[in-house]
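Ticket closed. Logging final result for Ribonuclease E inhibitor RraB.
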Amino acid sequence: MTIPNDEIGSVLLDMQDAGMDLTQPVVVEFFQLFESKTNAQALADFLQTQQEVISVTLHPDQTPEVWDVDCTVEMVPSYENIKAKEAYFEKLARQYDGYNDGWGVHFEES
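Final structure:
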């Protein structure tokens, strides 16, 4: 598998180097940020209606007056899948006056 040399590719290579099988589904968490708690709550409420979503968490960010909406989905972490899902969450966040702030996975070696 060829992984492009960009931010997504760098994270995927780190995951692969840590022993993660990038062909198997994992839980991926996507982060959205908002300056309005009302807008963050509106996106969180919408995301909770989506079948693909495992969990949604709304909480204050470390930055004052900023709110995080963290959303987890189970997916194969291919470059194309991550790029498409980030674009999806960026589009959704913009509809609620927020923006996508990246993604991550929790990986524990066995």
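The first strand starts at residue 26 and ends at 34. No further action required.
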